[in-house]
Specification:
19% strand, alpha+beta, three-stranded antiparallel sheet, 3 strands
Length: 121
C-alpha cells in the first residue's frame, strides 16, 4: 500500500520460451494443475531478474474479455512454496558469489597484488 492506502503489486516477466538449462534461477510453472490454477495455457518461465512494482490501477491492469477482474489465476499453495524455494536458492547462490569474490579480493590483498577492477573470475 502507498501513503494513500492504494495497493501496489509486484509483477515478473514471464515467457513460454523456457530455456531451462540456461536459466536455472528462474521460476517455471509447467505442471498441468499449476498451469490451470495460475490461468496459464502453456508452460511459463518467470525471469525473477525482471520484476516491477506497479500500482493496482487500470493504467497498468485491464480486465480481459470473459473475466471479472484483471486476475486470471493464482499460484496454489504448492506453487507459492516452490517460488519461495526458488527465491531461497537464488539468494544462497548470490551469497556464495559475494563470499567467493571477497575471498579473491582478500587473497589478492595478502599477496600484495593491486585490486582488480572486476572480480568476476
Amino acid at each position: 500500500m502507498d501513503d494513500d492506502g492504494l495497493p501496489w503489486v509486484s509483477v515478473v516477466y514471464g515467457t513460454t520460451k523456457l530455456r531451462r538449462e540456461e536459466r536455472l534461477g528462474d521460476f517455471v510453472v509447467a505442471n498441468l494443475a499449476e498451469l490451470d490454477a495460475a490461468g496459464l495455457y502453456r508452460a511459463t518461465r518467470f525471469d525473477l531478474n525482471k520484476c516491477a512494482t506497479l500500482p493496482w490501477a487500470t493504467n497498468f491492469f485491464q480486465t480481459r474479455p470473459g473475466y471479472q477482474s484483471p486476475v486470471i489465476g493464482r499460484l496454489s499453495e504448492y506453487g507459492i512454496y516452490m517460488l519461495q524455494v526458488t527465491i531461497s536458492v537464488r539468494q544462497a547462490r548470490q551469497q556464495r558469489e559475494v563470499e567467493r569474490q571477497a575471498k579473491i579480493a582478500a587473497e589478492q590483498y595478502q599477496a600484495g597484488e593491486p585490486p582488480s577492477d572486476s572480480l568476476s573470475d
